[in-house]
Amino acid sequence: MERSRSPPRYGSLEPTRWPPEDEIVSMADSTTTIDDIEGELFKIERIREILVRRESELRYMMDDIQLCKEISRLKQELQQLIALPENEKSNEEKQKEEELVQQIHKLVETRDFLVDDVEFERLREREEDKEMAEFLQTPAKEKKMTSRGQQTSAPYVTKTGLTLLKECCGFTCSIM
What we know:
With 176 residues, this protein is mainly alpha-helical. It contains 3 helices and no strands. The chain has helices at residues 34-83, 91-137, 159-171.
């Protein structure tokens, strides 16, 4: 007497149980209105925009941290060269000292540009948030949904990105 073996189950432990046909809800039978769908799409779009903002903010912060680390490394090298008495320095060491100063200067300028860019993005975000608040306050009949491609605003970064950037290297970091 051979037992019938059930085939191995992959994934879920229970087989999928489909509801009876009279319980299946079709989108055509749904009580969801166009306004409900548009509202849900609007919420999803806002969440996507918030995530894009956060991604941009994190990229700025990563760039800033890398610049700060490189500046710190170069400053340590420079301090070692400066610690040598001037009359004992070789021409190569003097040249290396000048190169380090130039590299540090270049990185500081790059970081300044980054901070300015974050500030510009923050202002753009503030303007876009103001426009969104005005849009939400208008009556539903006057609202005209536009796709993201039709909007004229550019990408943006949240204020927290600027705050974190300044806290990292603007106020508390020993680099500057």
